[in-house]
Amino acid sequence: MALEVNDNNFDEKVLKSDKPVMVDFWAEWCGPCRAVAPIIEEIAKEFSEKALVLKCNVDNNPAMAAKYGIRNIPTVLYFKGGEIVNKQIGSAPKSAYTAKLNALL
Question: How far is Cα 79 from Cα 5, in angstroms, rounded to an integer?
Fold first, then answer.
């Protein structure tokens, strides 16, 4: 299951992780976000040993959304070594998300 990350624990969970991290920036009112949610959950299960798959609600965590310039949701950012190394803006098929995550392993 994809875990929630917030303004308070983002640095610890994402930037200091020794594994690649995929963060889904989303909101409850966002239709495309709800459409990709099951895909994100599948990826979280499949990659549980190799990477972290996290979710960040932009309405509840405006500091992180602002810090990373999130203007469209869903936006998925990929981190490795505390740096953004890739991103996916808008909904996409599962293969698009997993290809970007696999490239970091």
Answer: 14
